[in-house]
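Narrative of activities, Objective 1.

The group set out to show that a structural description can be obtained from nothing but a protein's sequence at a throughput compatible with the screening campaign. Below is one input-output pair from the validation batch, recorded exactly as produced.
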Amino acid sequence: MKVVIDGAGEIGSHLAKLLVRDGSEVTVIDADRSRLDALSAAVDIEPLEGDPSSLKSLSDAQVAKADLFIATYPYVDQSINILAAMFAKSLGAKKVVARTKNMELLTSRGRQMLKDLGVDLPFCPEKIISDEISSQLRHSTINDSMDFAKGKLHILAFRLEEESPILDMKLVDFTHQFSREQNSDFRVIAISRDTSTIIPKFDTKFKLGDLVYIIIRKEGVKMLTGYLGVNDVAAEKVMIMGGGTVGAITASLLSSEVQQVKVVEINRERCLKLAGDLPEVIEVVNGDGRNSDFLYEQGLYDYDAFVALTGSDEANILACVAARKFGVNRTIAEVENMEYMRLAEELGVDTVINKKLVTASRIFKLTLSDRAKFVRYMSGTEAEVMEYTAEQGSAITRKTLKDIDFPDDAVIGGYIRAGEGAIAVGSTQIQAGDRVIVFAMPDSAKAVDRLFK
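Output recorded for this entry:
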């Protein structure tokens, strides 16, 4: 696949690395030579110095032959990305996506208007991670979650603490704690441990600090969370530290979903703007969220969740650690430095959100077949969760799962058939039309994709 990326910023650079690793031929356009040199030193791309919306730059990058064009230039008016994407489509690019900060363009009407102009997908990284945060807060003490078919199937991630009943237990012994009928309601699909992701076998033993990913039918959630000693209740009172773009969007989303939202912002002028722009039910407070005494004065101990969204990874992590000491059940931190993500998890931050990873997951879907409904990164691992619709005659439908040569670092967790969710096992045979949930490491994504064609 030939891909042209317009912009060597954080998201463009991360996408370039991901796509090159996946075997794509990638050209990156940027007006800053130093950014191109830094990216070229890390990954095998074709660098092209030029203006983001220049017809000459686009032609030199051979966008006419591109399977995918990604306009994600962060240093200019975001309308430049829309313009560049329109030019690329006119020049012959098959699929084009464009970064924007204009919320109107992300509505169904705005998306349709852009589609009519040739832009296949507008995206806003800040809106994407705000949606993620809102989704995560529907499960108060679960580290990550994802729902399918209106909640018929869930993927839940649990961090194993010292009091966990499955600590030092083998997977086979864990399954023996439940009846045959109860075991048909869930399946452990992966374990994130230290810096690796494990697709577990029956003799795999759970260890302290493991992040355990489980796919589960709606009917089994209460049973499993009860056994594990976690309370799956949505947060009702949320404090947000940081009133930037992400903080503002997140607060607006949550204002209609929870009882109380408070935004703490250190910049007084920004506070005044937020107070005028956000719904009246949101309380905006001027102060330094890095100060534990200030957070105490704001009654943090009385909140269900704390979300740290400043521009400082260190401040976000440390504030979440302080929030846990105040007794807050759920903490979420935006962490952009990849090296800090594992540290944040080790320090007890429940969910770590990374803008580059979450955005890349959405765009990476476009490199797969049309059978892939969506792709989403899950916190704590580099793995992706993909939902496919099985096609008539595809390899995945020809044999039972145990007889299919499925990649070792991927697993089918469950499927939706006739509107009902089911857990996949070795004897399962996928049928045409099934919606299939796959948990896979990035290197196996294309191999999985081929099975569904």
